[in-house]
Amino acid sequence: MKQADFVSLVMPFKDKVFRLAKRLLVSREEAEDATQEILLKLWKNSKKIGDYKNVEAFSMTMTKNFCLDRLKSKQAQNLKIVHSNYTDNNSSLQKQVEAKDSIDWVSKIMEDLPEQQKIIVQLRDIEEYDYAEIAKMLDMNETAIRVNLSRARKTIREKLTSTHQHGLK
Amino acid sequence: MDLNNIEKLIEKYNSAETTLQEEAELKAYFKSNNVAPHLEHYKPMFLFFSESKKEQYTKDVPLNTKKTKLYQWISVAAVAVLMLGFFIPNWSNEPKTLADYTPEEQELYLETKQTLSLISKNLNKGLLGMNALDMTGENLNMGLEKASYITVFGDTTNKLLKN
Predict the structure, then answer these.
(1) Tens-digit pLDDT profile for residues B90-128
(2) Which of A15, A130, A153 lies at the smallest CB-CB distance from B56?
(3) What is the pLDDT of residues A132-151, one digit of tens each?
(4) In chain B, what residues touch A167 (CB-CB under 8 Å)?
(5) Domains of chain A, CATH where assigned
(6) Which end of chain A is more exposed for a tag (fewer CB within 10 A), N or C?
(7) Which of A9, A23, A10, A35 is nearest to A123 (CA)?
(8) What is the nearest CA distance from B75 to chain A, expressed in angstroms?
(9) B131: in domain
(10) Cα dihedral across residues A125, A127, A130, A131: positive or negative
């Protein structure tokens, strides 16, 4: 496999890898490093890549495992890097600021979710994979994924309604 | 899309039973500016989901694994050349006879040989001269020994004289 072939194979899902890494590792730099690591690993094994039925699902699983490993080692070091930057959306300035605030708030709520739920929300609500694919990536059955997902959605919803009614904590 | 439908969809969504298409509808609805007031608090959530999807990985990935391999081979080649450098001079040291050289070179060789032998002969003559010096030195030593006898003799005569 040549470099150009590899790039065109990896191109469609490298952003997804990055976003999943960022969801889990929070810091942008950490996520970039993780993505680079994943892509290099894929490149090193590019001869075997033809054997995998679904390279994208395989890479997402790899990303998940890699990031969880990273988090484990980081928890041991008691280190936490928090960093978030988001692109703006196109509404009026006032709305924009409000929306940005609440969007930031959602991302903070998501940070508090258990890792499993974080991954599932990321894969389902943001990357829009179907349940069968997620089940394959995470090696779980679909019912368990649905249960986790509805719990995560419930948590986000409840926290959002409480802040919506009482203002920010 | 009417409100009733959206509410139903949200209910389904909360129990994670919506299809991807229905979720896309929900996202589209909450992106618009006329969201029903009692559903307003869902807005940031769906906005966040569609916003997050826009984030991109912009860093370049260095895929130059081949370069390092090339460097390895260069170092191997360098070592091989060094080793050859040590061995090649030894190969060319085959014994050569006088007949391999041209007549002028042979003549030169003989001349230098003669002059060198002349120098060595003269040196030997000089050495002979040095031998004579050696001999006188020996004789002097003998004389010194005899002189010491005389001093011993002198000591004893002094003793006798005191008595």
Answers:
(1) 665 555 677 777 888 889 999 999 999 999 999 998 888
(2) A15
(3) 889 988 998 989 999 999 99
(4) none
(5) 1-85 (1.10.1740.10), 87-169 (1.10.10.10)
(6) C
(7) A23
(8) 23
(9) yes
(10) negative
